[in-house]
Every structure is written in structure tokens, then in C-alpha cells.
Amino acid sequence: MRTTKLLATAGLLGASALTALLGAGTAFAGSGDSGSSGDDKAPTEAGTSFRTAQEVKQGQQATAGASTGDYLYWSFPADAGQRPTVKATVKLPDSAARPSGATWRIDVYDGLRRRQSCMYGTQSRATAPDATSVGLSCTLRTVRAWSEQWANDPLPGTYYVRLTASTLTPSDQGLPVSAEVEVTSKDVGGSSAVDGSLAAPLVPGSTTKEAAAASDEENGSSTGQALATDEPEDGWSSGWWSDRWVWTAAGGILAALAGIGGYALTRGTGRPPRVPPGM
């Protein structure tokens, strides 16, 4: 009877602790989601280089009008544990002035301007003669909190999207098109967590932007747009939290319960009443 009560009490305590840990993990995971707030407006134009890339938050849909042959650039923040997906749609002009046989391409670069490979998605597509739009997508590898210097792993920081027509005939140059770009992320969680973190996210131009702001304040003028320094709404986590904490704690609780149960089942009932003391 006492063994049953002991096991029931231990089970209730373990279930309560596990529920609390799972709730805390959900709260932390929810606080790390990055998205756009209703007050932020998506950009309606694109940059023409890395330095002038338009900043777009995850979940926003950026639009831009351009001409065939232009290079369009946007930037977005991605944190550790996220798997970003970039989707782009190019709306072509009417059939009388539609590019013939043009191939559109989307590329994604990290904060060090290293081109990142796509896990899956249609990164490049040729336009059909009767097509009115072209859809492209690129799903990156999961952003890691830390990596070796020689590796090309995605790391927390700013990412750049470049959209352009890679093949055009001279007669297709300069035709009007419109583009839409949207970035979303899937929170992968502790399955991709690593034991390490960056000292700072890969956000190039932060020093340049601060220096430009100080110069503008001193001279009373504007030097134009600085390099992208956007970050998630809740800041950079650098991978300090993952659901590995929850499952590690849950494993420890289950191991403790197993130890208590094993001891209760194997310790016996004590000295038999028929055996005198001292035997």
C-alpha cells in the first residue's frame, strides 16, 4: 500500500513538473517568433545593390516596379533555429511586350554575402510564351547558432534576396514588370541546436549606420540609406534557448521516477515476522 502511494505521489509530481516545463518551452518558442506587426508597412520598392537593399520583415509582402534587366535587392533578418523560405512572383507585361524566353532567378546571400544554397524550391524558371507571371521559391537550410569558420552554414543575421532575369535578348531589355517578395520561416527548434553561439549576428554595416547617424546629427544632413541592420522584433536569441532544455529536464524526471519505482519494487517488505532479531 505504501509503495503504491509512493509511486502515485512521484508520478503526480513528475507530471506537474513536466507540464510546467512544456509550458515554459512553448512560451519561449512563441517569444522567439519573428513576424511583422500591423503598424509596419512593407516596402514598395527594391534596392539595386547590397548596400541599398530594402529591409523587409518576415511575414511582410514587399512589392516593387522595375524593368527587365534590373537587379532587385531586399534584406531580411533570420535567427537561429529558423528555416527561411523566400517566395517571389514576377508579373509580366501584356503579350505584345512580353519577354520571349527570359529566365528569372532568385538568389539568397547571408550577411557575409556568401550565396546560400536552397534545400528545395524553384530557384530559376524560364517564362513560357503565354505566361503572365513567374513564381520562384527558395527554402534555405536551418540557421545555426554557431559554425566553423571554414563552413558555409547559415548563421543568424541579415540575409539578402536578389531577383533578376538571368537571360534576356536585347529586344527584351527595359520592359516593365512588377515583383512581389515574401519571406516566412519555420521554427525547427532543438533538433538543429548546437553547443555554441556567435558573439554577434552577421549584420554588416551596423558600425557604418551608427557613424552615418552621428555624422548626420553633427552636420544636420542626410547621407542616404545605410546597410541593412534590421533584427527580429524580440532581438537576437543566438540560440541560447531551445526545446532541448525541456526534453533534457523531462528525461531527468523520468529517470528519477524509474529509480524510485525500481527501488520500491526491489527493496522487499523487510524482516519476516518469523525470523527473530539478530539472525
Provide a descriptive summary of the structure in words.
The protein is an alpha+beta fold. 24% of the residues lie in helices and 26% in strands. It contains three helices and eleven strands, in the order αβββββββββββαα. The chain has helices at residues 2-31, 206-219, 244-266; strands at residues 54-55, 61-67, 72-78, 82-91, 103-109, 115-116, 118-120, 124-126, 133-140, 157-167, 176-187. Strands 1, 3, 5, 6, 8 and 10 form a six-stranded mixed sheet that branches. A five-stranded antiparallel sheet has the order 2-11-4-9-7, with no helix packed on it. Strand 5 (103-109) and strand 6 (115-116) form a beta hairpin. It starts with a helix and ends in a 13-residue tail after the last helix.
Using brief descriptors, characterize the structure shown:
alpha+beta; 3 helices; 5-stranded antiparallel β-sheet; 11 strands; 279 residues
The radius of gyration over CA amounts to 28 Å
Strand content: 25-35%
SSE string: HEEEEEEEEEEEHH
Helix/strand class: alpha+beta
Summarize the amount of helix as a percent range. 10-25%
Shape: elongated
Secondary structure tally: strands? 11
Unreliable residue stretches: 24-38, 223-228
Summarize the model shown.
With 279 residues, this protein is α+β, with helices and mostly antiparallel strands. 24% of the residues lie in helices and 26% in strands.
